[in-house]
Fold:
Amino acid sequence: MTPVAVYPGSFDPITKGHEDLIRRALSFADTVVVAVAVNSRKQPLFTPAERVSLIRQAVTDPRVEVRSFDGLLADFVRAAGATLIVRGLRAVSDFEYEFQMALMNRNLAPGVETVFLVPAFDLTYVSSSLVREVARFGADVSRLVHPAVAQALKQKFGK
Ligand code: PNS
Structure:
C-alpha cells in the first residue's frame, strides 16, 4: 500500500505553518497532494494559479504534488486515489468546523480518513489571514512565509 494524502485548503497564501504540516504528512504518506480550492467561500487575495505557483516555489520535495480543484473535496480525493485527508489543528477554535467537515467528508467518501496534525508550536499562531492582514500594512512577514510569498505579498500591496 502506498498511501496518498490530500492536504486541501485555500492557501491564500501558503505559510510556514502549511509547509510544516506538509513535512509532517510526508512522514506517513508516500505522496502528499496539496489541493488548492478554487471556489473558496472566502474572497481570495491570490488567484488559484498564483496560489499553486507560490506553493510550488515554497515546497520542492518531489513527493509533493500541487493541484487546484473545483467542486467537492470528496470527489477530488477519490479521483486522486487518496485514502487520507490531512488538516491542521492550531487551536480549540479550529475544532468545531474541522469536526463537521471531517464527518461530512466521511459521509461523502466512506473509507477516506481525515487525519489532524498539530503544527510546530512556534507556528501555531500563523494563519494566511493574519499574514495577509499584517502584510497589507507593510509588516515584515519574512519569518512567517517563504521568500517568494513575501515578495508576492509586497507586489500585491505595493509595499
Ligand atoms: O484553508 P481553508 O479555507 O480552511 O480550507 C477549506 C477547504 C477548502 C478545505 C473546504 O472549504 C473545502 O473542502 N472546500 C471544497 C468544497 C467542499 O468539498 N465542501 C464541503 C466540505 S465538507
About this structure: The radius of gyration is 15 Å. Strands lie at 4-9, 31-37, 64-69, 84-88, 113-117. Residues 8-10, 37, 40, 72-73, 101, 104-105 surround 4'-phosphopantetheine (CB under 6 Å). The chain is about 40% helix and 20% strand.
